[in-house]
Design brief:
Dehydroquinate synthase-like, alpha domain; alpha/beta; 2 domains; Rossmann fold
Length: 398
């Protein structure tokens, strides 16, 4: 009879559901991660359940496996020594690296099938060892399998150790659009081993430094000054200098994500994408012959000059920025900057619209009002962009 007392209403009403979920994950800096006496990995795996042998599956960047032919053997020895804490369900699985893995969704399906076949559950671990593209792709697999399995990132490039690896994004390219399919899903842990970086080729070492220059320019003038002061050591890849650059850059990225008020980018502002609106387009226009960091360096220089031309930044500071980038080994010109569509429109300006569509909301571009101080604008003047491109072209012709 009590149920008959419930009154049927047709009124419109709204019930707000609110809850907060804290996210935290360790970012560890170490050397010789797979030395049998180094407990960093097993300590991380055991942090929630210390008295348990943890089931894990490893995906390994193909380029890294070729550069380190003994790495799989070293991992096997490590797992054997630490068998009370970690159990590999299968030997490390080698997957393509670079943009190849991000440009074919078939690889995502293959990895998801592997997780299914080995019964990887939400308390198991999927460990990705490799560059940023591999971390992005494996991260997407982890975020979408069982609605989220534990993902441990082991970045092996400067770019992934100081930037993408410590972030909360995952994704792959689709329909010709960079990171069109993706998620915001924090990793379980990030383990940075400086020795992987030291064995990279020169081009990859240089490329990763662009993100350090970027974050210094928008957030920390003191760090920019440190980069200038230590440019010689960085240009010759001194280990201590490289380790400091990576750690400080990672810290600044982590602070922005954790304390900037918008970790999952629900708003329109994207300060960490300074220099990226043109960089993303340049990567595609060059069919990814330009590394991400190389394109970002050009984008930084372009936006620095644009900041001066638009009256935001004092003249001369763009030269200071470009000089640092060039000292580190970057070339700040590529012919793709001048490429136009069949209709005669500058491809970069098409990229600007694509950038806005990808991010959503109002067009918001970060420029500079000073070194260490980013400022948001909501439009870009095509004529000033053209003048900035011409300025870069004239620089390389001198």
């Amino acid at each position: 009879m009590a149920n008959q007392d419930i009154e049927t209403k047709t009124d419109t009403s709204t019930h707000w559901q609110r809850f907060a979920v804290p996210f935290e994950f360790p970012v560890c800096f170490t050397e010789n991660l797979f030395d049998i006496k180094n407990t960093t990995l097993v300590d991380v795996l055991s942090r929630l359940e210390p008295k348990k042998t943890h089931k894990a599956l490893i995906f390994l960047d193909e380029g890294l496996s070729k550069a380190y032919p003994n790495l799989i053997t070293d991992i096997a020895a490590y797992v054997s020594y630490q068998k009370d804490f970690i159990e590999l369900v299968t030997p490390p699985i080698v997957i393509p690296g670079g943009e190849k893995i991000k440009s074919d969704i078939h690889f995502i399906e293959q990895m998801q099938q592997t997780l299914y076949d080995f019964r990887i559950d939400r308390h198991s671990y999927v460990i990705a060892i490799g560059g940023g593209a591999v971390l992005d792709a494996v991260g997407l697999v982890c975020a979408t399998t069982h609605r989220g399995v534990r993902h441990v990132r082991i970045p092996t490039t400067v770019l992934s150790q100081n930037d993408s690896g410590v972030g909360v994004k995952n994704g792959i390219n689709l329909y010709g659009a960079k990171n069109y399919i993706g998620t915001f899903a924090p990793p379980f842990a990030v383990l940075n081993d400086i020795n992987f970086v030291m064995d990279l080729g020169e081009r990859d070492k240089i490329a990763g430094m662009a993100e350090a220059v970027k974050v210094a320019l928008i957030r920390n003038a003191e760090f920019f000054g440190w980069l200038e002061k230590n440019a010689n050591s960085l240009a010759t890849f001194k280990k201590d200098a490289m380790a400091t650059l990576i750690r400080r850059c990672a810290e600044l990225h982590m602070h922005q994500i954790g304390h900037g008020g918008d970790p999952f980018e629900m708003g329109s502002a994207r300060p960490l994408d300074y220099g990226h609106w043109s960089a993303h387009k340049l990567e595609g226009l060059t069919r990814y012959h330009l590394r991400h960091g190389e394109a970002v360096a050009i984008g930084i220089a372009l936006d620095a000059r644009y900041s001066v031309l638009s009256g935001l930044l004092d003249a001369g500071k763009e030269d200071r920025i470009c000089f640092l980038l060039e000292h580190l080994g970057f070339k700040l010109w590529h012919a793709a900057l001048e490429k136009r569509t069949h209709e005669g429109e500058l491809e970069l300006m098409v990229g600007l619209q694509e950038f806005r569509e990808h991010l959503g909301g109002e067009l918001t571009i970060t420029l500079l009002s000073d070194i260490g101080v980013g400022v948001e604008v909501h439009e870009m003047d095509t004529e000033l962009v053209l003048q900035s491109i011409q300025w870069l072209k004239e620089r390389q012709e001198v």
